[in-house]
Amino acid sequence: MMASYVGAVDQGTTSSRFIIFDNGGRIISVDQKEHEQIYPKPGWVEHDPLEIWQNTQDVIRSALKKGKISGSELVAIGITNQRETTVIWDRKTGKPFTNAIVWQCTRTHEICRELSKEGGQDRFRDKTGLPIATYFSGPKITWILDNVPEARKAALKGDALFGTMETWVIWWLTGGPKGGAHVTDVTNASRTMLMDLKSLQWDNEILEIMGIPPQIMPQIVPSSDQTPWGTTPQDGPLGAPIPVCGALGDQQAALVGQTCFEKGEAKNTYGTGCFLLLNTGTTPIASTHGLITTLAYQTSGQPAVYCLEGSIAIAGALVQWMRDNLGLIKESREIEDLALQVEDNGGVYFVPAFSGLFAPYWRGDARGVIVGLTRYVNKGHLARAVLEANAYQTRDIVEAMDKDSGVKLSTLKVDGGMVYNNLLMQFQADTLDVPVIRPKVTETTALGAAYAAGLGAGFWPDFGEVCKNWAEDHTWHPNMAPEIRAKGYRDWKKAVERTFNWVDEPEA
User: What is the dihedral of CA 278, 444, 86, 206, to 10 degrees?
Assistant: First the structure.
């Protein structure tokens, strides 16, 4: 059969999916499977990597079956993934030495505090574009090596491999212990706090400071590679030798899926967290307002493209918290109906600093607060405050991007699970005072991974062809009085200040 589709593994924070796309970027088939969220201690978040790999195989087989497609009909496979989540495993057996430490996990707070003693939180920012924070992979590697003796022993012997989740999935997809490719693309490598932004190589000095043996690190490769890293084995879930040649961290994948290939174009993804990326071209821009300088993507033989990113830890996860921890709703989609029962937030603001605050504040000592409570407030007001928190956190990022880039945002492309919440999207347009645009295909993360693989394999000849696939579905225009917009944001900033200094530093 003629290869006429591209497959994308979307390994996310709460589930793994496999989506099959045609040449027009349309979804042909999809399957999804959730994995367990493991919380061993307050602030700790883990995943079972073997469960994720099993689920990945299951969704590949199921999506092929649903679409009545043979694996041999795929021209290539791309992977997108939850970034920063860290796993170290035995290269001979494929067995992880411990559960994967998830990007949200705060167990490395003390390691980060020690690293910051010399040079402060921005000690490595000139090289890596990142502040020292529990968010990134490097300190997580250190934690595993320091706390799991078998991992340190194997690492020193050359028997251990480190990877973020795309590395783990690619290794297994291309054979695992039987010669699987140990690679990471530039976007995921840029999230470790271990890669030099300019050379696109691991920085040996930082590896030494963090006590990480260089032999455990994967090879850094372009996001879209004309030379496949490996092929899937005949007895694997695809049942055919398919090239694996595309990988992007989930937020960069959404940027590519939204076809933000021009300098100054931006997208915001509303998922478990919330992530706004602005394409800054082939030169990295150092942030002085709390943003991350990171890789947007790189194609074979071309200069890397950089972006500024604002990362928000808790977005859709706040709706899940309302559902699972408080029981105020039974399904996440009910949050909009509940919020529509009231006309405004009743003076209530909810700052979800459950794991500290990410950009632009970077406050590990912050914890969540609900402020402005009175006897008047009901659950509808709380639901409004939950949705508005996503929009206000996004405005914090946009304000910082304006200052760093000097480029005033004119429109915002949006994607992710929450973009069908019309109340949230309208409020986002209102508080930003710019149009908010949702594309017809909102599975932009998986689509970006498919584009990366398809461009590498020649399925799409160039970016121009990919851009033809993007189409607008709906636009929300701002419709809020300037004085109401200003007061709402002013009160939000006051609420944010209330979260600071909640966690005391341990006494010496």
Answer: -20
